[in-house]
Design brief:
Blueprint lengths: L3 H16 L9 E5 L4 E5 L13 E5 L4 E3 L8 H10 L5 E5 L2 H9 L9 H6 L5 E2 L8 H7 L7 E4 L3 E6 L2 H24 L7 H10 L13
Parallel strand pairs: 6-7
Antiparallel strand pairs: 1-2, 1-5, 2-3, 3-4, 5-8, 7-8
Helix pairs in contact: 2-5, 3-6
């Protein structure tokens, strides 16, 4: 089977993430679910800004490499857990954008309704308790939140975003980082306002126009 088009999508988004400074060196990983049994994921130790077809592996839901010669990402368990728990998710993006990661390292969640675009497209962004990358601890910690959220700050680590497709997962990474910058600046000012509860409910209703579930990321 030819996965060229799906690999092209990963390569393009890897370039965007690298150029925006969401990843450094060989950080991060990207995956696309192909069907119930298989997914593509970036190999370990590869710069997301310079990916080739050979750097993207075909794996099964047990983490076995079906095609490709590279090593699977050390965080493959995280991707598998999400796909098992969320049948509506077909793309996953993990990166270390500067402001989002700053908040994650500081132990600060983005859990207040402040920005309209975030309420509509993502909603509440929890802080997931630290788990050693590459172990079952991290996916197990994410699992507590995964059914009800589309984006996560990983304590002392980075950011994880989900989508019905990989492009949506990437755009949520952009939105999260934009929000993180704004929130960082608000903290410098020492004050900010949250959205009224009734207005938040109206924004939830508007989500269906953007293909976002009304029950995720609820404040």
């Amino acid at each position: 089977m030819n996965y060229k088009n799906e690999k092209d999508r990963i390569i393009e988004l890897g370039k965007r993430a690298y150029n925006r400074g969401f990843v450094a060196s060989n950080d991060g990983n990207i995956s696309i679910r192909l069907d119930e049994e298989r997914f593509l994921i970036t190999a370990s130790g590869k710069s997301k800004g310079y990916l080739s077809y050979d750097d993207i592996l075909l794996c099964d839901m047990q983490g076995n490499i079906l095609e490709g010669s590279g090593r699977a990402s050390s965080e493959i368990r995280m991707h598998i857990m999400v796909y098992e728990e969320r049948s509506d998710v077909n793309g996953i993006f993990h990166a270390h954008p500067i402001y989002g990661t700053t908040l994650a390292v500081a132990g600060i969640a983005l859990d207040q309704p402040i920005l309209v675009e975030v309420i509509v497209s993502i909603g509440k962004i929890p802080l997931v308790e630290y788990g050693t990358p590459g172990t079952d601890k991290l996916p197990n910690n994410i699992k507590k939140y995964v059914k009800n959220h589309e984006a996560f700050l990983l304590e002392k680590h980075g950011v994880l975003t989900l989508g019905t497709d990989v492009e949506t997962a990437y755009y949520r990474m952009e939105t999260l980082e934009h929000f993180s910058k704004i929130f960082f600046n608000l903290k410098q000012l020492g004050t900010y306002q949250t959205m009224d509860e009734n207005e938040v409910k109206k924004l939830y209703q508007a989500r269906k126009n953007f293909g976002v579930r009304e029950d995720v990321g609820v404040y």
